[in-house]
Design a protein that fits this description.
Number of strands: 7
Distance between the termini: 34 Å
Helix content: 25-40%
CATH architecture of the largest domain: 2-Layer Sandwich
Structural class: alpha+beta
CATH superfamily of the largest domain: OmpA-like domain
Shape: globular
Order of helices and strands: HHEEHEHEHEEE
Radius of gyration: 17 Å
Number of domains: 2
Largest sheet: 7 strands, mixed
CATH class of the largest domain: Alpha Beta
Length: 194
C-alpha cells in the first residue's frame, strides 16, 4: 500500500473542513511534540462527573493510537488527566485517575500494548489557567499524552509517572482500579514492568 500523497490530504482537508483535519494529521504522520507532550487535534472530553469518554474524542484518540503505532521506539506513554478545582480535592483526584484509566483502556481496545501505557491522575494539582473563570476551568480539565520512556529508558531522568498518582495497572485483568491506587507510590514506577 503506497502512502497517501500530501497534496491529496490537503485537498481532502480543505473540502471536508474541520472533520478532515484530525484524520489528515494522523494519516500523514504529522505529529507535533512540545516538551515531550504529543499535541492533539483537540481535547479528550468526558461526560460531566464521569469517566465515560464522549464520542467527540474519537479523532483525538485515533491520532494518539496512530502516533504510538508509528513510533514504536516510544516504550512508555503517560496518560495524564488533570481537573479544575470544582468539588473536593479527593473527588477530583479519583476522577482524574478513573479518566486516565478509561483513556488507557480505549487505546488498549484499539490494539495498543498495555505495557506501553501508564495512566496517571493529577487531580487539580497542576492548573495551567485561572480556576476563577469558566474558561480557565475548562483549560484545566485536560488530558495530556506525554512520552515518558524511549526504548525502555525514562526521558530526562524523570520518573515515569511524572509525579502524579498512578491510577492502576492497565495490564491487569480488571484494567486498573477506578477508585484510585490505594497502596501505590506517587513517585517513580511501582509496577516494575517498565
Amino acid at each position: 500500500m503506497s502512502p497517501i500523497p500530501s497534496r491529496l490530504l490537503v485537498v481532502v482537508s480543505l473540502l471536508l473542513a474541520p472533520l478532515a483535519v484530525p484524520i489528515a494529521i494522523a494519516q500523514s504522520g504529522g505529529y507535533q511534540i512540545e516538551g515531550n507532550q504529543l499535541t492533539t487535534p483537540g481535547p479528550v472530553v468526558f461526560e460531566t462527573g464521569s469517566d465515560k469518554i464522549k464520542s467527540d474524542s474519537e479523532p483525538v484518540l485515533q491520532h494518539v493510537k496512530s502516533y504510538l503505532n508509528d513510533k514504536s521506539y516510544i516504550s512508555t506513554m503517560r496518560i495524564e488527566v488533570h481537573s479544575d478545582n470544582q468539588g473536593s480535592s479527593a473527588f477530583n483526584q479519583k476522577q482524574s485517575e478513573a479518566r486516565a484509566l478509561a483513556v488507557g483502556r480505549w487505546l488498549i481496545s484499539q490494539g495498543i500494548d498495555c505495557q506501553r501505557l501508564i495512566a496517571v491522575g493529577f487531580g487539580e494539582t497542576k492548573p495551567i489557567a485561572d480556576n476563577a473563570t469558566p474558561d480557565g476551568r475548562a483549560q484545566n480539565r485536560r488530558v495530556a499524552f506525554v512520552n515518558a520512556a524511549l526504548r525502555g529508558r525514562p526521558i530526562g531522568g524523570m520518573p515515569i509517572d511524572g509525579g502524579g498518582k498512578v491510577a492502576g495497572d492497565l495490564c491487569s485483568s480488571s484494567g486498573g482500579n477506578s477508585g484510585g491506587n490505594s497502596g501505590g507510590s506517587s513517585s517513580g514506577n511501582s509496577s516494575g514492568r517498565r
